[in-house]
Amino acid sequence: MKHYQKQYINGEWREGTSDRMMENYNPFTGELIYTYKAASPKDVDNAYEAAKIAQVSWSKTLPEERRDYLKKLAAVIREMEEEVFELLAEESGGTKAKFAFEYGDTLKVIDDAMGYHMMMDGRIMPSNVAGKENYVYKKPKGVVCVIAPFNFPLLLSMRSVVPAIACGNTVVLKPSSDTPGSAFQIAEMFEKAGFPKGVLNVVAGRGSEIGDYIVSHPVPSLISFTGSTEVGQHLGKIAGELLKDVSLELGGNQAMIVLDDADVDQAAKAAILGTYSHQGQICMAINRILTTPKVHEPFIKAFVKLSKEVKVGDPFDEEVVIGPLINEKQAKKVKENIEKTVNAGAKVGLEGKIEGSVVHPWILSNVTNEMCSAKCEMFAPVSSIILVQDEEEAIKVANDTEYGLSNCIFTKDLFKGMELAKQLESGMAHVNDQSITHEPHVMFGGEKYSGVGRFNGHWVVDKFTTEQWISVQKTDRY
Length: 478
Fold this sequence. Notes:
The chain is of the alpha/beta class and 478 residues long. The chain has 16 helices and 24 strands. The N and C termini lie far apart (70 Å).
């Protein structure tokens, strides 16, 4: 894995100017990969100044020019495929299967963005004033701040960075302190693709030093944040007081509903993918499984059997499905939440070992919605199975959470599944598929405490642009 020890500002690699050092650790081995000097507020100033200057000329590039830059970017990423996997595995604990999803969807995001210039359309509207014409133009927002999470550091950075740039904005990207290398690797990709200086800038530093400052800075007009609800609320408050626009993709507490007429084997297989992908460290991961009486015991039996076959361990092993959590602190928190749930009356259907930062699958039954594992976003390979009496109770329990991101329903009656999905208080719902579902051309986003705003397609174009009304009075009105 390449060691990225400098910030990327205005097309140059610069040492951070903070007097504090940052460490990058391997979550599986716990070993220190490298250290680097953190970014300071001064570095943030320089990054925003570079982005502000570059945006003036970048916004004037022809649509075809921006498309050609994105084509070069995609080609560079394909050339760097092995490097990308090594970094994601070593820095974030991502398995080969998780990499295939993240890497593949990143390329799809870029491919989709190549057509975003076609969505930068405006309107000519009639006027009730004689001799007046009304024009509505869609324009770039200006400079966008992107704050990325640790779990999908490549995809969830590029999901904002690429559309923003495709729409004529420039970007300052701040990665999670747990996965800084991914953001600097993105900077290297843009550099190799030949993007003009200042179009993308990357600064990595401590949240306590630059976290609030990068949001409150006067330059960015939009803050795009992906991460926990608690941090999102804090950043949203800062942005709101300054009347900055926000795009917040936050936490989730997904429910998988398995009805009496469901195919139990299909549902159990889907639950494996929806619960254990990337160790459950996905905002869309299944947290609660709601089963009706007829399928309750058969589902638990099938799910436990399949879970025992899931390989856990080193993310570099291609057969491994579950790698490490991002750090041991998270694993200890998971253990505490499991203990609280068991002490409250839950039964252990499958007991998973916890070894350092590695958590083996846990399946808890006899769970109620008030218990810790069901109420919290576990962000780990832990399932809470809740018995519900019918579909009406299933919808009620599924909605009984402050989150509303992505839920799913399993039933052989597809029409009933669609009608029930409409009753779910979530931005996304899937019938006969698990909740970790993403297509770069389809709307993505949540309700309630799961976030504000929508990604992908014309939804993200609308978010990363603004509209201006210009009227022209052709005859003397006065």
